[in-house]
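To whoever picks this up:

The parser on our side crashed when reading a file containing two proteins. I've narrowed it down to the boundary between the first structure block and the second sequence. Both blocks are reproduced below exactly, byte for byte. First block:
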Amino acid sequence: MKLYSILITTVAAIVLLSLFTTSCSTYKNNSNEMKSVVGRIMVVGAEPFTRLAIQTSSNKAFLIESNKKLQKLLLKNQGKRVKVFFKMKKKTENGIVLFVVRVKIL
């Protein structure tokens, strides 16, 4: 009986450990997936605290963080429909921020 309980405990520990490592690796893979949003580029806020944003057709707005080159491209294309590609987003007190790595002007 004692051997049986040790066996059950060991098997349970192995199953839990494998589930934990699988869930961690799945999370890691999901964070590297490229996601995208389609909408119109706009500038929000008041000078000197303006930010780039994208507004979708369902009226959701997301703030945009990107490198200088992409920021210039987006500023030149204010009001135009674009598709932005991002790998990460972050919820802040000002809204959801997309960390954009690529832009396609539609």
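<<boundary where parser fails>>
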Amino acid sequence: MMKYLIDWRAYDVKFVEVVLHDNEACYGVIQQSDQSIKIAVTQPGSQQREALLHEILHAIEVHYRLDFKEGEIHLLSVGLMQLFAEKNKPIREWLCNSKSL
């Protein structure tokens, strides 16, 4: 199981077969009550990564009392995934590892 921190709050990331939100299947969901994120393993790896980033953005939104619409979270997660894509490897490495460009 993966964990990640937003400030002082630790979230567990669980990869499961089925993810439900309001009784409908979805790619991922965050549960603030137990500080967990569930990601559906039935989707391709790239979709799992985007879903995880999407749910992490929801956690950031709640933690810092932001007010994003669902569409804004989606656009941010897609844009950030493009930023971290292989074609942007020098920027990704610099942001993540403090390597110089």
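After patching the parser it read the second block fine. The longest strand covers residues 9-16. Strands lie at 2-6, 9-16, 20-21, 24-25, 28-31, 36-40.
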